[in-house]
Amino acid sequence: MTYKNSNKYLWIYPAVYFVLWIILFEFIFPVNKILPKPSIVFDSAGALWSDYNFLFNLLSTVGSVYISLLAAYFLVRLFLPAIKSTNSLFHFTLSLEWFSHYVPGLVLGLFLIYWFPDSEFIEFIFAFCTAFLSLVIKINKELKTLPDEYISSIRSLGADELFVTKNIVWKLIQPELFKHLFKLHLYLWLILIAFEFIKGGLGIGVIFKDALLYRDLSAIFLNALLTGVIIYLGTLLIKLAQKKFFNWRLN
What is the distance between the alpha carbons of residues 235 and 225, in angstroms, rounded to a whole number? Predict the structure, then answer.
């Protein structure tokens, strides 16, 4: 079975886990502190919606993740000539790349929470800065590995540097940049949930915080389950866009 064909059957794994959860924790271990009974989880769905304001918290996190991703992607496209230039201020991101190996990005979030404790908009600023800097760092890496023959050929025809950057360099780095979006997408979700957990206010992380405070295992489990489904759907959308617009290879 090829890797491509095996991907068609990945749905089997969550289905098996789901069935095991029902069998084990509904019938065999109905009273435990590991996972809640399925029947209790389903009954608590309404409470998650009303008591924890799931819709508003979900929209806050989803908006921060996907608007920041889109904004960051199109801005690096706009500023690509400046990012590529060796004299550009964007080269300060090389030092940020060094810091990112040793200092978690959430540390920046802690400073933002300290500086703007009452701002709900600061979550989007944090998400956007994280996405934008990650894409800039990725672009700088890809620029070092570009095949020179493609660029030299178009330059020999008299194309100026701006044309080459916008029409050739961008096309060459797009596939790898889009692959990077998959990792960045998951990373943004994780780091924003942690950010919201610490800050409070709105967001999926706030639901986890409140559910832990009230020792509500069903809310924790259901919130995690729904969040996983939403992240999966977001990943599918990114894959769909990749196949539709960026599914090419140089070789």
Answer: 15
